[in-house]
Specification:
Elements lengths: L8 H15 L4 H10 L6 H8 L7 H10 L11 H44 L6 H16 L2 H16 L1 H8 L1
Helix pairs in contact: 2-3, 5-6
Amino acid sequence: MREQSHDSPDQRLAANMRQLRERMEMSQAALAIEMTARGIPWHQQTVGRIEGGQQPLRFAEAVALAGVLKTSLDRLTWSTPEANATERVYAAGAAVRASYEKIAEAIQRALIDAAGAERTLEETSADPSPRVQEARDDTAARLKGYGVNDAIEEGVRRYNELTGAAEEDTADD
């Protein structure tokens, strides 16, 4: 699909307004409610008309809109290529942040699980059953290889395998 050219300031503002609203995962109706709460009586249809380029924005509306969308007035007037490139950069950063959070949660869960396994090993240390002792020995051996640093090394190894970085590293030697 061909990207529309947004030459006029009103067209750029409409396109940027929609892009910023969507980045915030805000519906047109939710934006209208926020604007009304700021003393600008909008309806969902108002948002649709402005985003469609059928209704211009007054300056007071633009100021309130920038506040709702947590941006500057200047950002509402950026050219489409500049706005799109900026959004791509923010999306890339957001993806890294989301991955970071998943890693932190996984490490927390791994440490909780390891502590639980250690407690279970302690609680079952005196059990005379050979099967329990075999399970303890197996679990204790596995715990030694499932540390946080081991998980990080495994993640790096998998990344290198996926990207071919390990081959490039050895080719440089």
